[in-house]
Structure formats: structure tokens, C-alpha cells
Amino acid sequence: MPATHFADRLVERIDATRSLLVVGLDPELGQLPPELLDGVDDLASAAAAAARFCRGVIDGVADVAPAVKPQSAFFEAFGAAGLHALEEVTAHARAAGLLVIEDAKRGDIGSTMAAYAAAALGRVRIGDRELPVHDADAVTLSPYLGPESLQPMLDVADAHGKGLFVLVRTSNPGSARVQGLQTPDGRVFEQVARLLDELGAKRRGRGGYANVGAVAGLTYPDDARALRALMPRTFLLVPGLGPQGGAPEDFPLFVNDDGLGAVPAASRAVAGGWREQAGGDAEQRVRDGARAAALSLTEQLRGPLARAGKWRW
Amino acid sequence: MPATHFADRLVERIDATRSLLVVGLDPELGQLPPELLDGVDDLASAAAAAARFCRGVIDGVADVAPAVKPQSAFFEAFGAAGLHALEEVTAHARAAGLLVIEDAKRGDIGSTMAAYAAAALGRVRIGDRELPVHDADAVTLSPYLGPESLQPMLDVADAHGKGLFVLVRTSNPGSARVQGLQTPDGRVFEQVARLLDELGAKRRGRGGYANVGAVAGLTYPDDARALRALMPRTFLLVPGLGPQGGAPEDFPLFVNDDGLGAVPAASRAVAGGWREQAGGDAEQRVRDGARAAALSLTEQLRGPLARAGKWRW
Fold it and tell me: Which residue of A has its CA nearest to B45?
């Protein structure tokens, strides 16, 4: 019987693929091989090209990465057709065995947040039917509105074996302006970290990790120790590898001694792997390029993790 | 020639309708007259019913309220079909002369935020075409990621005469947990208010108001004076009237002496007006009920505003 708790499912996938890598799906048109843009001249054809590109990346990484992270904005940019593409890509990834972390950074309260939760992770009630919409495995959230903005998503996550990753310490320099403000009990993001640890305490799976995760940028390694201490049983989603300036050597700071507790996210570094592929048609280059890039990133992380005694296999 | 700056367009609409009211469009199925739910049994038919309901509300309030505020979550709940409904409702409202404030509370950085901005307010580039997607007049945002999360939306707003409303002090009790934290220079939300005032200083229209607005809940009237002082030329979008416990008597605290600078938002109190209508078919009840409720709310605000010397007409 498969584990139904989100964190247990994540750990299962991590062990099955021997990788921690979360592959971002950011289908900006400029990131696609030119052949996939042939005939693209409206929102519907753009959305179809984006979906085709993402399916290629998914097929390439399905057995070498535990999860993908579609960025909702790049689908929403194509309007209703883009949402259709997001639904299709999410279903394709789940069918391939990947976990899907929808990067939507939603945040609202009450029935509004419940509507986001039903759409992203749960079921929407239409008459006496309960219908899945995105049916992702987890979603990213923003904590600015406080605990009430997380609760409706937690309720749905608990009921359906899903998870959430809440913004704590993001990778951009300007994050200092709100998250980094000093309060009597630490900086704002440390207070958010405490809140997440509280919420996660009663929500741990068999492996000890909570279904409430946090987003913490690799570009702030100095804060990794504090965040890890404040949220020992929280999975950290760690963007910032590569183009944003985060170094693989810093990643082990975010990881627990069991080799778990943090997953790095990389988007262009994987999905752009097709640029390094010489032969074959576009779809094959996307697939092979993503696979090669994912394996290479996992390998780049292996050394630092092994030296820190945190390579799990 | 119509004013192209968002704040000027808003003031024009306010004066044309002699009302400050922003009418929320929250088409949860439970809020619709039962007749509109006949035959609704999947996401597509639910989205169509939601759109029909919103069109009725729009037709009812078009000449008695300056703007509508569709809540993205209630459209997203119906998947791609819901996004299609949101696009349709937005176009219907703009054609009726209403300004459309898309309540999406987005927040991300870099090219991701640029994609949200292009979809919500601007144009999306497909090959050599620039296509509108939602083409709303303004959008709500979350500031947790700092100034970089606002800049791409500001760029698009500046270029297209659009606006934004950033969460500052929300109406829910738990907002204290993040927004209300004390820092050496005031609470977190006061720091966000300062940031918005800075960003707005170079972005004022002919009437002196910026295209950078703020969301501040009516349920915290004690903070109104501080917020007003920190952001004198910022339009405040003020939810919380009615069901959330905000009192019309407190609204003038948010308003400047020119009778401008704040707009109250009400959703169910207007869109649920059909419940007070006896005869006619469902669409007529929705239209007439919304109109009557909007006029009644404006009237309820008139007394307190007039007593404070802030009734503009």
C-alpha cells in the first residue's frame, strides 16, 4: 500500500529515484526549441506548445527526479488555454509517477482560500459531485495574511494526503524589505518559520516529516542553520541553484543528517538541457536534455552532500 | 480624451456614479439563485452559471458603482472553464464602463511576476503579436517577497494606464501574526505602507493619486489614521463592510478630505441582493437586487461621510 501522507510519498520518491531534485516547469516561449514554436500564433497554440515542451521534460526526468514544479504564472499567461495546459501537464506528470508541486504562491482567507485549496489539491463540489481540478500533490503559498490563510489549504492537504510549501525566506535580495525585518523575536521570516513548525507538529507522517513545508532560498546559506533549527521536521523547498547564484556547496546546510528535509528546485538548468543536445527531433532533445541535466545536477549535489555525511545512499 | 492614468480613471468613474463602492464578484455556487444551477453538473456548466450570475450583477451596478472586483479563486475553482468565465466577465464589465480590479493577490519575482503582469493587466507576446489576456484595470498583490515582486507589475501598470492594490493590513484577526509584528520602525504593515508610498510618489495622476494602491481592512479602524498618514496619495481598497464586521461609521477614517483616497469593497452584500427580490426571473432578480443593494450601501456610507465633511457631491 503506498504511503498516503505527502511527506512519506515524497521520501518514497526520493529513495526510488536516488535524487532530491525538484524540476521546475517554466514554459516561457523563449525557453522552447524553435521547432516547437512553428505555427504558434495565438494563446491556444502557445499553450499547446508549452504543454508539449513540459511533457518532454517530464518524460525525461520521470525516473531520475522525485517531483516537478510547474510555475502557474507561465501557464496563466496563456489564459484559459494555459490553465488547460497546466491541468494536462499535471496529469501527465502524475501518471509518470512524479509528484507535482504547483508553484502558485496563493494566499487569501476563508472561503476564498478554500476555493484555491479545492482547485489545487482537493475536489470542487458541483451539486452532489466532487470533482478534481488540478489535483496537484502540493502547492506553494504566501503567508502574509497569517495562519487563516494557511488553514483551508491544510484542511484539504490533510484530507487528501497532499502538502504545502509556504514562503519563508525567498532567494531575492529585496526579500529583506519585508521578510527580513527585525522583530523582538527574530526576523519576520523566523516568526513564519515558527508558525510553520507549530502547524506541522501535528501533521507528521511515518517518516517524521510534516506535510507543511517551507520555501527557503539557497542564496541565503547563512540563514540555513537558523531555519533548520526552527523547523527540524519541515521539508524545505530550496530554489536558487544556478542562474540565481546559489552554490551546490551550500545545499547541505539545508539538509538534515538523514539526508532528507530539503529538496533543491531547478528550472532552466534542467528544462533548458535541450540546448546541449545535438541530434534528434525537438521532443527527443527536450527529453534527453532534461534527463542529462537532472542527472548532472544530482551528481553536482552528491559530492557536497557526501562530504557533509548527508548523502543518503 | 479619457484620462489614461488608473487613479484618474477611478476618480472619473467615482464622480460619474457618485459612488465609491467596489462590487466584489465571488461566484460561489451556493451564492447563486437556484434557477441558475439547473443542469449544472460539471466544471464547464458551473463556470457558465457563474459567468451568467456575474453578468447580471454587472448589469445591475454598471451605473451606480465605479468598479467590480472579481475574485480569481472562485473562477479558478472551475479550472480552465473558470478562467474562460473570468475573461468573459472582465470583458463584460469593461464594456459596461466599469473598472475591473482582479482580486488575485499574486506575488512572485522576475520573469514569473512579469508573466502574471502581462496576463492580468498587459499583453502577452506570441511571436510578433502582443495579445491581451485578462486586460483588467488593476490587480491585487501580496508584498511578502518585497519590492522585486511589485516592480514587474508596476512596469506594466505604468505602460498601460493600469493600477495595483497591495495587501497592507488585511481584515482577518490572524493578520497580526505576520503583518502586525513590531519592528524598530513600526509594525510590518506600516513598513509596507512606506514602501508603497515611495513607489507611488513618482506615479501620480493629474488628480494627485498614485496608481499604486493598498488593501486595508475596515475591521481595523484604529490603524486608519496611521495608514492614511503614511500613504496620503494612495487609494485604499477597504474590504470588511458587512459580514466581516466592519462598520460604515468607521469608513470615513480611511477617506481623505477631498472625499477620495479610499473605496469600500463589498461582495455578498451586493451580489446577494437577489434574495430580497420577489418577482421576475432569476437574471432580473440578480440585476435588480445588486442595483438596489449597491444603492443602499452607498446611502449607508453617505451619512457618516457627510458628517465627517467628506461627502464629495
Answer: A126
Sign of the CA dihedral B258, B261, B266, B271?
A: positive
Whether B145 sits inside 8 A of A107 (CB atoms) is no
The per-residue pLDDT for B1 is: 42
Point out the residue among B113, B124, B175 whose CB comes nearest to the CB of A146.
Answer: B175
How much helix, strand and coil, in percent to the nearest 5, is found in chain A? 50, 20, 30
Q: Contacts of residue B115 in chain A, CB cutoff 8 Å?
A: 28, 73-74, 76-77
Contact B203, B228 (CB under 8 A): no
Are A177 and B183 a contacting pair at CB < 8 A?
no
The residue of chain A with its CA nearest to that of B81 is A80
Determine contact, residues B114/B148, Cβ cutoff 8 Å: no
The alpha carbon dihedral of A72, A187, A244, A212 has a sign of negative
| CATH architecture label of A6-306 | Alpha-Beta Barrel (3.20)
Q: What is the pLDDT along chain B (313 residues), one digit of tens a residue?
A: 445 999 999 999 999 999 999 999 999 999 999 999 999 999 999 999 999 999 999 999 999 999 999 999 999 999 999 999 999 999 999 999 999 999 999 999 999 999 999 999 999 999 999 999 999 999 999 999 999 999 999 999 999 999 999 999 998 889 889 999 999 999 999 999 999 999 999 999 999 999 999 999 998 889 999 999 999 999 999 998 877 778 999 999 999 999 999 999 999 999 999 999 998 899 999 999 999 999 999 999 999 999 999 999 9
Out of A105, A162, A202, A310, which one is annotated catalytic? A105
B202 carries an active-site annotation: no
pLDDT (tens digit per residue) in A14-71: 999 999 999 999 999 999 999 999 999 999 999 999 999 999 999 999 999 999 999 9
Q: Which residues have C-beta within 8 Å of that of residue B279, sequence separation ≥ 6?
A: B285
E strands, A107-198, where? 123-126, 129-132, 138-141, 163-169, 182-183, 186-187
pLDDT at A196: 98
First to last CA, chain B: 24
| Domain boundary assignment for chain B | 6-306
With bands split at pLDDT 50, 70 and 90, how would you rate the model's confidence at A244? Answer: confident
| Residue B259 CA: distances (Å) to CA of B4, B11, B178, B268 | 21, 10, 31, 25
Helix B110-120 × helix B151-160 angle, to 10°? 30
Strands A22-25 and B123-126, sheet pairing: unpaired
- Which of A40, A73, A148 lies at the smallest CB-CB distance from B126? A40
Are residues A105 and B110, on separate chains, in Cβ contact within 8 Å? no
Q: B190 to chain A: nearest residue by CA?
A: A178
**Under 8 Å between Cβ of A231 and A237:** no
pLDDT of residue B171: 83
Residue of A79, A143, A170 lying closest to B119 (CB–CB): A79
Give the SS3 label for residue A76: helix
